[in-house]
Amino acid sequence: MRALVTGGSGFLAAWVMRRLLARGLGVRAFDVREDARLLRALAPAHAAEVEWQLGDIANANDMTRALKDCEAVIHLAGVLTPACAANPVLGAQINLIGTLNIFDAAHACGIRTVLYASSAGVFGPDDGATPFPMTQYGAFKLACEGSARAYWHDRGIASIGFRPLVVYGAGRETGSSAGPSLACRAAARGEPYTIPFSGATGLVFADDVAAAYEIALTREVEGAHVFTLAGDITPMETVVTRLGAIVLGARIGITGEPLPIATTFPDDPALHAMLPGLPRTPLDDGLRQTVDFYRTN
User: Fold this and answer.
1) 3-class secondary structure for the chain?
2) Distance in angstroms (rounded) separating the CA atoms of residues 67 and 162
3) In DSSP terms, which residues pair with 166 in a beta bridge?
4) How far apart are CA 294 and CA 297, in angstroms?
5) How does residue 244 score in pLDDT terms, banded at 50, 70 and 90?
6) What is the distance between the alpha carbons of residues 182 and 118, in angstroms, rounded to a whole number?
7) Which of 289, 194, 296, 291 shows the shortest CA–CA distance to 247?
8) Pairing relation of β-strands 158-164 and 193-195?
9) What angle do CA 214, 271, 269 make, to 5 degrees?
10) Segment 49-98, tens digit of pLDDT
11) End-to-end distance of the chain based on CA atoms, in angstroms?
12) What's the Rg (C-alpha) of the chain?
């Protein structure tokens, strides 16, 4: 099997491709530029096996060309909350129109299932069950979920979308919720850092999210599904304390308001039924692995 991974130069794509390559799958990465530095650090033995194809996610012809000869697609390309806030039209072109192009290209190429990245940003600050986005980014992601349902109804294209909360791990260095990962990097380098938001949020280790896509790739899917990956709801004070135990003398602080996303999410039996055995890395292990990565890279 060859899988197309969009947003191939991004943080999460590197973790996903690492798992696919370890399974012996063929991987084609798509992005506006080729940047395999993180993938080479995470999977040095396999990074050179990736086929890169450059193009624009908002260009329908580029997406059809990228999917040619692929049997699966994992759609991770997008711009994050700050970029969507600064330029909502560009954010919509990449995050929403780009997703529509992926579904259209999948239909044209005979691919029956699309795996894609949604976000817990579809929720507001008070309710983790009913979507109520407070950002342009969350609004675009919620629109993508609705379009995925329409593609199943209209064209029979099945889908699974994942809504992770704050994904952390090696290479997570951009976006409004990158603070825990950047704190790990700073602690490893002996530098001070202030996490730019307070309160509690769900922390999900990058490899756990990558495993969800890997497992989903092996499933026969009917319908349009979307699952929240809440991780462990963790106060930022706990992150600071744990990092202080991992790196003695770490100079990590906290400032700012909490993230505008709920911290209470109902358990979803459908997630465990469709994707049994999802890993859940303990916070201490995830933080330690991230610190170790930055100590050696």
Assistant:
1) CEEEEECCCCHHHHHHHHHHHHCCCEEEEEECCCCCHHHHHHCCCCHHHCEEEECCCCCHHHHHHHHCCCCEEEECCCCCHHHHHHCHHHHHHHHHHHHHHHHHHHHHCCCCEEEEECCHHHECCCCCCCECCCCHHHHHHHHHHHHHHHHHHHHCCEEEEEEECEEECCCCCCCCCCHHHHHHHHHHHCCCEEECCECEEEEEEHHHHHHHHHHHHCCCCCCEEEEEECCEEEEHHHHHHHHHHHCCCCCEEECCCECCCCCCCCCCHHHHHHCCCCCCCCHHHHHHHHHHHHHHC
2) 21
3) 203
4) 5
5) very high
6) 22
7) 291
8) unpaired
9) 155
10) 999 999 999 999 999 999 999 999 999 999 999 999 999 999 999 999 99
11) 32
12) 18
Q: How far apart are CA 238 and CA 10, in angstroms?
A: 27
Strand order in the sheet with 200-205: 166-168, 200-205, 232-235
**Residue (of 69, 101, 77) closest to 2 by Cα position:** 69
Question: Which candidate, 180, 187, 183, 184, places its Cα nearest to that of 249?
Answer: 187
> Tokens 């943080």, residue?
11
pTM to 2 decimals?
0.97
Q: Which two three-digit tokens encode residue 103?
A: 């579904």
* Residue 247 identity: V
Rounded mean pLDDT of the chain?
97
Q: How confident is the model at residue 47 (pLDDT cuts 50, 70, 90)?
A: very high
pLDDT at position 250: 97
What distance in Å separates the CA atoms of residue 212 and residue 190, rounded to the nearest whole number? 33
